[in-house]
Amino acid sequence: MALLPILEFPDKRLRTVAEPVTEFNDELRQLIKDMFETMYDAPGIGLAATQINVHQRIITIDTSEDKNEPLVVINPQFEVLADETEKMQEGCLSVPGFYEDVVRPNKIRLTAQDEQGEEYSLEADDLLAVCIQHEIDHLDGKLFVDYLSPLKRNRIRSKLEKLHRQHA
């Protein structure tokens, strides 16, 4: 297994729309293992392949306290199941050190494939529903800062650009 470098906002590669996965093979399964290792090490509860500069529709998630409920999400789609929304503070491994409130639907049904290519469906609410939507946004080239005001988004961009210059 290997720790993979995570792209950081405002890297333009984070805006790439990911392509569907068509081959379910050992290479894919190794990538998923590496994604989990990277996500747990970061530490995070979700990681989209886009964040590691792999532009395929692959997500790893684990919202459990003990990091023992890994969820592999490939070629995901979701539908909103309830009108209720939830305001939750979101952070992102690609926007390190920043947390902001984002409003999203509270209950969804996810349809996706696992690492073997088997299709599955699950209903999610609260943190898992938010995490799934946040990670799918990554696959669509969208970041949680896109839900913020232009002023807040530009302030975060400026601070991260300054940090990147200092570490370059």
From TrEMBL:
<dbReference type="GO" id="GO:0046872">
    <property type="term" value="F:metal ion binding"/>
</dbReference>
<feature type="binding site">
    <location>
        <position position="134"/>
    </location>
    <ligand>
        <name>Fe cation</name>
    </ligand>
</feature>
<dbReference type="GO" id="GO:0042586">
    <property type="term" value="F:peptide deformylase activity"/>
</dbReference>
<dbReference type="InterPro" id="IPR023635">
    <property type="entry name" value="Peptide_deformylase"/>
</dbReference>
<keyword id="KW-0648">Protein biosynthesis</keyword>
<feature type="active site">
    <location>
        <position position="135"/>
    </location>
</feature>
<keyword id="KW-0378">Hydrolase</keyword>
<dbReference type="InterPro" id="IPR036821">
    <property type="entry name" value="Peptide_deformylase_sf"/>
</dbReference>
<feature type="binding site">
    <location>
        <position position="92"/>
    </location>
    <ligand>
        <name>Fe cation</name>
    </ligand>
</feature>
<comment type="similarity">
    <text>Belongs to the polypeptide deformylase family.</text>
</comment>
<feature type="binding site">
    <location>
        <position position="138"/>
    </location>
    <ligand>
        <name>Fe cation</name>
    </ligand>
</feature>
<protein>
    <recommendedName>
        <fullName>Peptide deformylase</fullName>
        <ecNumber>3.5.1.88</ecNumber>
    </recommendedName>
</protein>
<dbReference type="Pfam" id="PF01327">
    <property type="entry name" value="Pep_deformylase"/>
</dbReference>
<keyword id="KW-0479">Metal-binding</keyword>
<keyword id="KW-0408">Iron</keyword>
<comment type="function">
    <text>Removes the formyl group from the N-terminal Met of newly synthesized proteins. Requires at least a dipeptide for an efficient rate of reaction. N-terminal L-methionine is a prerequisite for activity but the enzyme has broad specificity at other positions.</text>
</comment>
<dbReference type="GO" id="GO:0006412">
    <property type="term" value="P:translation"/>
</dbReference>
